[in-house]
Amino acid sequence: MSEQVKSLVKSMAVLEFLSHHPDGVALHEIAQKTGINKTSAYRMLTTFEALGYVAQHSASKNYRLTLKLLHIGHSALSSDVLATTRPKLNELVKDLNETINFISREGDKIVFRDKLEPQYSPFRTRTFVGMYSEMYCTAAGKVFLAFSTREDQENYWQRNAGLIQKLTENTITDKERFLQELETIRTQGYALDNEENEAGISCTAVPIFDRSGSPAYAVSISTLTPRLRNAGPDNFAKRIKQTTEKIEQELFKQ
What residues does the IclR-ED domain cover (predicted)? Predict the structure, then answer.
């Protein structure tokens, strides 16, 4: 392998490492965890920063990926996964006349990969494609945690205990209650955000499982709380699951 190719491989290792740290990470940790010496890691990061793929926080000096990489990744996703999911999600939008989100997990965050809104809707959510959100206060985030291991759940809470806060009166901030909530979600097969992230807005989310049985993606419905109560979260979840099962079949079971 030539030196140029080796350098490229190391550069990609840095980008992949950063992808697991959406809130940013220090230079010394990047060098330590990737096995790349600090000087070389710094050169790579400054090059990526100059190209617009990496940004450095002015106060902490931590490095993080920018949305420029997301645009490239979203193009790849659009040509593959979204080609499968978009038609089915469109059917769901037409059927329920609600906002539909297609979501993945990145580290301790969820990322909105796609969002479809009905033509005529009484409201518009503030989310957008490429947006990161916390897991503890969102239906999709709780879905990913509920179907992970207990170790992952415990580690997530430990890493994020400092940022978990009351966003609304319904936000769950007690660890034991949160873990019980995850058990309920695992049993019933779907998660509910009962105005835990934003007052007046509720969400229902169902996982999309890969071949190993782990949640690869999630599909959620965002709606006004009275509309969810009138329709019934169980009914919403049942309809979403019909869609997620079709997506699973095409993406992972062919």
Answer: 68-253
Edge-first strand listing for the sheet containing 215-224: 132-134, 109-116, 99-106, 215-224, 201-209, 191-193
CB distance 115 to 128 below 8 Å: yes
pLDDT in tens, 152-185: 999 999 999 999 999 999 999 999 999 999 999 9
- The three-state secondary structure class of 165 is coil
Long-range contacts of 20-24 (CB under 8 A, 24+ apart): 20/106, 20/107, 21/64, 21/107, 22/64, 22/65, 22/106, 22/107, 22/108, 22/109, 22/132, 23/62, 23/64, 24/57, 24/60, 24/62, 24/63, 24/64
In whole angstroms, how far apart are CA 175 and each of 157, 172, 178, 214? 7, 8, 5, 23
In order of their start, the domains of the chain are 3-65 (1.10.10.10), 70-252 (3.30.450.40)
In angstroms, the first-to-last Cα distance of the chain is: 36
Three-state secondary structure call for residue 77: helix
The answer to whether 199 and 215 have CB atoms below 8 angstroms apart is no
Give, for 125, the enclosing helix (H) or strand (E). Answer: none
Tens of pLDDT, residues 99-156: 999 999 988 999 999 999 988 777 778 888 888 999 999 999 999 999 999 999 999 9
Query: Over 92-107, what HEC string results?
Result: HHHHHCCEEEEEEEEC
Q: How far is CA 155 from CA 159, 192, 233, in A?
A: 6, 22, 29
Question: CB–CB of 159/108 below 8 Å?
Answer: yes
Point out which residues pair with 106 in neighbouring strands. Answer: 109
CA 238, 148, 138, 21 torsion-angle sign: negative
